[in-house]
Amino acid sequence: MIDIRQEFNSELQYRFPNVFRHKEYVGVGPGWWDIIRNLSSELEAIIEKLPEEERLSLYVVQIKEKFGGLRFYMNAETDEMFDLITKAEEESLKICEECGKEGAQFCGIGWIKTFCESCRKIERK
Hints:
This protein has helices at 4-15, 33-48, 52-55, 79-92, 117-124; strands at 26-27, 60-66, 69-74, 104-108, 111-115. The chain is α+β, with helices and mostly antiparallel strands.
């Protein structure tokens, strides 16, 4: 049985081959997947326009959650790419990582997460 996160990783590698040149595991919940899809589409368009030798050095190395926000790390990036990544990371602070609804940051003992009220209630149980 294939994990939905594995399916998402496969989708990203298929749709955005320049951005996801290497197999990387997306370690965030499905609520942020649309943010990642939109960002990846914009990054792919930028990378496709570059000379091949430049394209090879611009790829994702890690996607994770840290301090309640999306972190999208690339091997290298242009200023335009940096701005898009920053915007996506900021957007994630207002979107529930689990369901994609409007959310806010919540602190627990040793953690900060971005949840909607419903997902926060589930997390606290």
